Amino acid sequence: MKNEELTYNSLPKISFKSIFKNKAWRHGFILILILVTFQTNSGNFATLTYSPAIMKSAGVTWNPELQTLSFPAVMILASFISMSCVEKFGRKPLISITFAGAILAHAVLGTTMLLQSQGSNTPGWLPVLAIVLYVFVYAGGISPMPYIIMAEMFNFQIRAKVMGCLVTYAWFMSFLQLASFTAVANFLGVYTVVYCYAGINLCGALTSLIFLPETKANTTILTYGFQAGWVSPMTKVLQSANSPSGYPLTDYEISWIASAICLAAMFGVSLFTYIVDKYGRRVAVLLTAALQAVSWILKLSSAHIGVLITARLLAGLGAGGCYNVVPMYVREISQD
């Protein structure tokens, strides 16, 4: 890695204009941009964050404590399975299969909600199974694979610039998804939004199967469910009469707590792209960990809405760096 970094420092700086003039780089950038669009609009943060509201629409009440334990457990299991399969089967089959699993999960969940809205009875375990299936395939393939692929697709000379741009875009799309979910769901119905997610995952599966090249070379797995999904089981608690904030938080306040991480992550990507170039990968990785630690300390110290939003903003800054720096760093050290 040191030899490669010395080589990189000796090379002339490449501008975005030069990157887009290169046909192969331009094609790769556009392809990953499309893939990230489908990934960030696949229902990931909305499903993780607003699962209590989604379950309520499906006629199911889910214990917040159980959800707090189940989501991370499912995501960790999916990550381990993904790590064991990614080198054997490749990136392309894995992301295609997980997109297909997300189609099934959202189709089942949307149909359950639609039947419930029409007065029909459906098994209570069915929407739970659908959400767990989506969390599994999201953590196992939809979430990590685009970042692994972009780290392997672009060479060392342009990787930081291209990944910084793509990850900023990904967080912006995630912010829009979280900020607009409640309003769109109230207007069109939650089941309509869930069906839209199924359609987006179908587009992602087709794009992966038809256009995505296989980039199998080195393995990196990145999961970030704890910070992103923390607000999901806490929504019911924060909006209850016994809210630790002192009063039940409104949907508007919850939407800001939920989306703050994505809003800050957009700026975190640019910040950590600069830190990587100025101080190196290792310093950037350590700083992402420090930001996460401070974020959790703030959450544990107070349930005031201002403190919670501040904690989520710090988590977002760290997340922007995590999704940008960690795949790049692991990709580079694995070559040695």
Automatic annotation (TrEMBL):
<dbReference type="Pfam" id="PF00083">
    <property type="entry name" value="Sugar_tr"/>
</dbReference>
<feature type="transmembrane region" description="Helical">
    <location>
        <begin position="305"/>
        <end position="326"/>
    </location>
</feature>
<feature type="transmembrane region" description="Helical">
    <location>
        <begin position="127"/>
        <end position="150"/>
    </location>
</feature>
<feature type="transmembrane region" description="Helical">
    <location>
        <begin position="283"/>
        <end position="299"/>
    </location>
</feature>
<dbReference type="InterPro" id="IPR020846">
    <property type="entry name" value="MFS_dom"/>
</dbReference>
<protein>
    <submittedName>
        <fullName>SFRICE_023130</fullName>
    </submittedName>
</protein>
<feature type="transmembrane region" description="Helical">
    <location>
        <begin position="93"/>
        <end position="115"/>
    </location>
</feature>
<feature type="domain" description="Major facilitator superfamily (MFS) profile">
    <location>
        <begin position="192"/>
        <end position="336"/>
    </location>
</feature>
<keyword id="KW-1133">Transmembrane helix</keyword>
<dbReference type="InterPro" id="IPR050549">
    <property type="entry name" value="MFS_Trehalose_Transporter"/>
</dbReference>
<feature type="transmembrane region" description="Helical">
    <location>
        <begin position="190"/>
        <end position="212"/>
    </location>
</feature>
<dbReference type="GO" id="GO:0016020">
    <property type="term" value="C:membrane"/>
</dbReference>
<feature type="transmembrane region" description="Helical">
    <location>
        <begin position="66"/>
        <end position="86"/>
    </location>
</feature>
<feature type="transmembrane region" description="Helical">
    <location>
        <begin position="254"/>
        <end position="276"/>
    </location>
</feature>
<dbReference type="InterPro" id="IPR036259">
    <property type="entry name" value="MFS_trans_sf"/>
</dbReference>
<keyword id="KW-0472">Membrane</keyword>
<dbReference type="InterPro" id="IPR005828">
    <property type="entry name" value="MFS_sugar_transport-like"/>
</dbReference>
<feature type="transmembrane region" description="Helical">
    <location>
        <begin position="162"/>
        <end position="184"/>
    </location>
</feature>
<dbReference type="GO" id="GO:0022857">
    <property type="term" value="F:transmembrane transporter activity"/>
</dbReference>
<keyword id="KW-0812">Transmembrane</keyword>
